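Lesson 9: reading folded outputs for more than one chain in a single document. The general rule is that every protein is listed as its sequence immediately followed by its structure tokens, and records are never interleaved. Here is the first one.
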Amino acid sequence: MGARRLPRPARRRSRQGPVTRAATENARGVVVGRRPARVRLLWFGIAVAVVALLAFASVVIGSRDVSIADVVAAIGGSVDNTSEAAVAKRLPRTVLALVVGLALGLAGAVMQGVTRNPLADPGILGVNMGASLAIVVGIAWFGLSTATGYLWVATVGAGVAAVFVYAIGSLGRGGATPLKLALAGAATSAALASFVTAISLPRGDISGTVRSWLIGGVGGAGWTSIGQMAPFLAVGVLVSLLSARRLNSLALGDELATGLGERVAVTRAVAALGAVLLCGAATAIAGPIAFVGLVVPHACRLLVGVDHRWLLPFSGVVGAGLVVASDVLGRIVARPGEVDVGIITAILGAPVFIAIVRRRKVSSL
């Protein structure tokens, strides 16, 4: 005789037990992903090394190539010739590219974790354009002119846009699905971009500056603006990294996260605050650079898995490398001129966005 079959309720309980235990371990950070720690550390070390090489290339490559001796002399404070002067200008530009890329890569990973939306990105969800509109309104109507003012106004604009898009995407049946959030973000970005054009176009005194800033770039960086950005960046990075374990809980779903003692609304609000600070600071200094926050987290998940304790710092490092690489590439392809970073990242990121949208299994994280 064959083995007696268990009654249906007993079989259902036997299947649910291991799943629940695995989910609990996932939420507590015990078992998230299957990549060994040494593999993750290896990839992280490789990423840091590649970013360091890209930063060095950013300093030496441009309309005028410079030598290592010129780099060392410029770092030491000696600016005696044209090459050393070029290095002195490229150093803050390289640092700005690093911190902007770190901010956008980290913010993209946090947004995808908060919304459980694989299409979440500061540009796609309208956050960058919200910050842009706030700055343009401040310049045109309130005489905004300081970098510190840009930072505060951009942060407020980014926060308002994020809340608006999430509220619109949550309407109707099913709540905030990835498709609804992406559509709400795209529509909001288009509307905000129209407002930016309507405000700046009649103002000949600011229209040229606004148009060039909206492309997104790191040229003309200075140590003063980077220093003013640093407190916003530091707070945003700290809040985002401290939210990593709770984002692992959110990945299980709201009901299970609540059952494990997680305050879902508070977790989302705090993590989103970190992302908004990062996006606002990056946009205020460099303009709205798109697709970095979308492409980087997807690439990082392939290397280090879905554990946000690894994914968030890895996304920051890889984001920094992507922006620096885009800046270097923009100098090479149009020598002796240059192509702004925002154009390069759009060319690289648009095909990735299309590929993600076309995947049938992309419904949530």
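And here is the second record, again sequence then tokens.
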Amino acid sequence: SRFPPEMMQEAELCFPEFFNSSCKRLTLPHFEVVLMYIVLSSIAVLTAFLNLLVIISISHFRQLHTPTNLLLLSLAISDFSVGLLLFFQTALIDGCWLLGDIMCTVYQYLAYVITSASIGTMVLISFDRYVAICYPLHYSTKITQGRVKVCIFLCWMCSWVFQSLILIENLKQPGKYNSCIGECAFVISYIAGYADLAFSFIVPISVIVVLYLRVFVVAVSQSRATRSHVAAVSLRHSVTAKASQLKAAKTLGLVVLVFLLCMCPYYCVALSGEGSAMSASSAAFVICLFFFNSCLNPIIYAFFYPWFRKSIKLIFTLQIFHHDSCDTSM
């Protein structure tokens, strides 16, 4: 080797100038590191860009200002934030956090809040579909834009407050649980961990599953009614009126299903009792799954929502800058 052993040992440290207290850098093949940087950066850019299209679409066009779309807007904002957070995750590929303890705390805290807000938004989406399918005659009076905006605001505020209480020790003293310089570790107590597990996963996921099971049962019964020759005429009219709502329920059901599949691994680890301490590097796989889900949502919209495809066309052709473009029929 061209380097003496002392220099080789220093090269493996995150901060060679702090020889006795620096964390060790992960020894990964150069090709693997470059590939991970490219993949993570691409997902980050794609996630932020696609969700920005959703945010612009729903915010700009007045016809899209429906209660359901306001919930999708809230979800897109959290997904857009996930895309931005992914750029921080690229800093942990070699196992070294170079941005300091405060930025580590901000990064981890935002990740917790966004995750909690996303799950809360999913509960609201499930409830919206439940009312639309099971109580269609009361939907327009029960689910209004004003009430949905209040629910979204409360969802985000509760996420901020709840996660602040859960992570209070980490927020008081950033870097408190780091064992060496260059680490980005978060530790929460068992009580806080179980509280987070209950209120950020078990309770909301149970509500989502119960609501969508109810929606599924009603959808199946209505589908059978349309095929029955002895079905009442009024029932047929009711089913016809709910056709678009059923389609929306299927699309949003797919969004919820993908969300659950991407979020369950972390909470399954928590349920198995692997511990409440998790460094950012060891949680990379779980976080990347969450990021990948955020990238998938706009793609699902593009496949199932004609209004999203039309709005993308108007955005790319710069027609949204035309006078009264916000009143375009979608």
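What the second record shows: The domain at 38-325 is CATH 1.20.1070.10 (Rhopdopsin 7-helix transmembrane proteins).
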